[in-house]
Write a structure and sequence with these properties.
mainly beta, 1 helix, globular
């Protein structure tokens, strides 16, 4: 419907999170790596420590615009490897 990627992140029962979620005391953003897999094949793999904005900065910024509650998920941009940008597309 649009060229924006938001729609790809908000469909019911398809938001790509997991296989586990952890609390902040179990998570070190400087050492974490984002892995995105489709049918067992790695599509994206990138250090979270290399993000333009830290997770703490994003939470602080978004909380100035809307209320955030425990368990809310903030979906932002994506590293290289997204299916549409592949040749051939995946």
């Amino acid at each position: 419907r649009t060229k924006e990627w938001l729609q790809g992140k908000i469909w019911a029962a398809s938001t790509p999170v997991g296989p586990v979620m952890v609390t902040t005391d179990e998570f070190d953003p400087a050492a974490a790596t984002l892995h995105t897999r489709v049918n067992g094949q790695t599509m994206q793999e990138h250090s979270i420590g290399d993000l333009l904005f830290t997770p703490a900065h994003l939470v602080a910024y978004f909380s100035t615009m809307l209320p955030l509650n425990p368990g809310d998920i903030i979906l932002t941009g994506t590293p290289g490897g997204v299916g549409r940008a592949r040749n051939p597309q995946v």
